[in-house]
Design a protein that fits this description.
The protein has helices at residues 12-29, 45-53, 105-115, 174-178; strands spanning 5-10, 36-41, 60-67, 80-83, 93-101, 121-129, 142-146, 152-153, 169-172. Helix 1 packs across helix 2. The chain has one domain: Rossmann fold (3-Layer(aba) Sandwich). The strands form two sheets. It has a six-stranded mixed β-sheet with strand order 4-3-2-5-6-7, with helices on both faces. The chain has a three-stranded antiparallel β-sheet with strand order 1-9-8. 24% of the residues lie in helices and 30% in strands. The relative contact order is 0.20. Bound molecules: inosinic acid and magnesium ion. Magnesium ion binds next to loops.
Length: 179
């Protein structure tokens, strides 16, 4: 896998420190509450598993799966629910946990759909944000790193289901997806 990576953007140590800070901020903001962390599969699982352990107040977790990318590198704009949440959302404080906010179409759609279930609040925590690429009117409440417009993989992020298990985040060599 290493040979397909052009450069390393965030090392495991840098990721761990950022996630620790995000967990502290969330613990502070939600003190006295019991937020529900909603992980959007599959890209956010690594971030989710680290973030939940960086939160030191009670919280719950749930997962949903949507498809927007398939094996390509661009969002189709069509968001399909492949797996829905098990938890009723009425009155809950939701934190949607995402790996990367790109065009924003996926999260814009999700946030709209989940808000119809009458939660008390919805916020978005994303490890990575590519604001230059935004097409939908959406911003995250907690952002780890603002990244340049390059295709990146690792720490949960994939290209065609590969590279999710890299312990760092790196830029994928363009020849890997251009061939
Ligand atoms: P959006 O709807 O365009 O914001 O798409 C967000 C989803 O696209 C993320 O959850 C990722 O699965 C995927 N994605 C966007 N940019 C990248 C990238 O640079 N590397 C890997 N996946 C990406
Ligand atoms: Mg993906």
């Amino acid at each position: 896998m290493k040979e397909d990576i052009q450069s390393i953007l965030y090392s495991p140590e840098v990721l761990a420190e950022k996630v620790r800070q995000m967990g502290q901020k969330i613990s502070h903001d939600y003190a006295g509450k019991n937020p529900l962390l909603v992980s959007v599969l599959k890209g956010s699982v690594v971030f989710m598993s680290d973030l939940m352990r960086a939160i030191d107040i009670p919280c719950q977790i749930d997962f949903m799966m949507v498809s927007s990318y398939g094996a390509g590198v661009k969002t189709s704009g069509v968001v399909k629910i492949m797996k829905d949440l098990d938890t009723p959302l009425e009155g809950r404080d939701l934190i949607i946990v995402e790996d990367i906010l790109d065009s924003g179409k996926t999260l814009h759609y999700l946030k709209g759909m989940l808000s119809e279930r009458h939660p008390n609040s919805i916020r978005i925590a994303t490890l990575l944000d590519k604001p230059e690429r935004r097409e939908a009117p959406i911003t995250a409440d907690y952002v780890g790193f603002v990244v340049p417009d390059q295709f990146i993989v690792g720490y949960g992020l994939d290209y065609a289901e590969k590279y999710r298990n890299l312990p760092y985040i790196g830029v994928l060599k363009p020849e890997v997806y251009e061939k």
